[in-house]
Design a protein that fits this description.
The chain is built from 3 helices and no strands. By secondary structure, the protein is mainly alpha-helical. Helices cover about 80% and strands about 0% of the residues.
């Protein structure tokens, strides 16, 4: 969880850089576009992390339904 922003930025940079090189653009425009892609990827990954943490908190804080534990069969040895 510590490196979500770093990984997102790296993936954004790498994706835009590779697509710019594959399109045949000059290096200066590829690098300028890749820096914007780096920021975009980092912010998207940050938003994904926030959404993931919010969902995990909701899941762990939700109370269990009262009827589920009582209905489960208990295996006994006799």
């Amino acid at each position: 969880m510590k490196y979500f922003l770093l990984i997102g930025g790296f993936c954004g940079f790498l994706t835009v850089f590779a697509s710019g090189i594959a399109a045949g653009n000059d290096l200066s425009s590829v690098l300028s576009n890749a820096t914007i892609g780096c920021l975009g990827g980092a912010f998207l990954m940050r938003g994904f992390r926030l959404l993931l943490m919010h969902q995990i908190r909701q899941l762990t804080a939700a109370p269990a339904e009262p009827g589920l534990a009582a209905e489960a069969p208990v295996a006994t040895r006799e």
